[in-house]
DNA sequence: ATGTAC
């Protein structure tokens, strides 16, 4: 007689790393879907909408909801040459990344007129949630030779850009969901064509924003030294490898984001098939947004969230978002990196320490282009 | 995380 066998679930975290049971439950729900082969959960695993965040999920069929709406979301690192680094001065010079660049803005040169699917709406904007554009400084270097190959050394300023495909990915998922719900894509090639365009759009968006910030800070735009998507699907070994909040970890360099008040870790990733060829994408939430808001209001002042323990500044005119994204709402990045290292998935190369993190424009009268 | 509805 035939029976449905659930896919395997492997959690890459040490027993001392707390993982919300609801997120592990979601992994098992995903594992029970038709055609699923394997679910690899990263140490930053936390519950998502329908599917867990921080997982690499392999199946014989393509499930768009396992990638989610922010197709092509990723984190890129751009070197930036600055003469003087004074966070207060630089924070005031950040462009308004909630609105696209003006038509004549020189930052557009960074994408050379490439607008995938002709979707101009939101291009050059950062979005909300956990997205950010950060001026950081290379901190501890664990692997100088490796860092050197990337052109990075301790003290170097860099831009870290975490953003995705904005409304485009959302539109692509919705078009599928309206007809097929959480079911598989009946025409995987058609979905993949749109998905791949959104992945390209996300990369261009990160590049465009880095160019905007570079220009605004008086520097030349640069090519990214690291740029990996953590929401995408690829065909690998004849199966669909969905990554949601999990970065490609097959011999690549990945920036694993910390929080707006702790370092991030640039790692050399070398994850195998059991880990879905993936590594964690960040510290991972340990509190829901609602809990972070409620508990954060009791625990923190706005001032201490805008000036962090590492001395960085957070540009965020949205008070609620500031609490939702408080460092204490996330797990300790060192624990996540420790788990990746202990399981042989990655080797730390260097940290980046925040100087200025841009979340959303400050409120009140704002300095406008061409005005003092 | 998102655009949109409330």
UniProtKB/TrEMBL annotation:
Q: Which domain of life is it from?
A: Bacteria
Assigned keywords, A-Z: GTP-binding, Ligase, Manganese, Metal-binding, Nucleotide-binding, RNA repair
User: Which parts of the sequence bind Mn(2+) 1?
Assistant: 131
Q: What biological process terms from GO does the record include?
A: RNA processing; RNA repair
Q: Where is the active site?
A: 281 (gmp-histidine intermediate)
Query: What Gene Ontology molecular-function terms does this entry list?
Result: GTP binding; metal ion binding; RNA ligase (ATP) activity; RNA ligase (GTP) activity
- The UniProt record gives the binding positions of GMP as 130-134, 230-231, 264, 281-284
Q: Where, by residue number, does Mn(2+) 2 bind?
A: 162, 230
Cofactor: binding comment: Binds 2 manganese ions per subunit.
On whether Ligase is a keyword of this UniProt record, the answer is yes
Q: What class of enzyme is it?
A: ligase
Stored Pfam families: RtcB
From the Swiss-Prot or TrEMBL record, give the protein name. Answer: 3'-phosphate/5'-hydroxy nucleic acid ligase
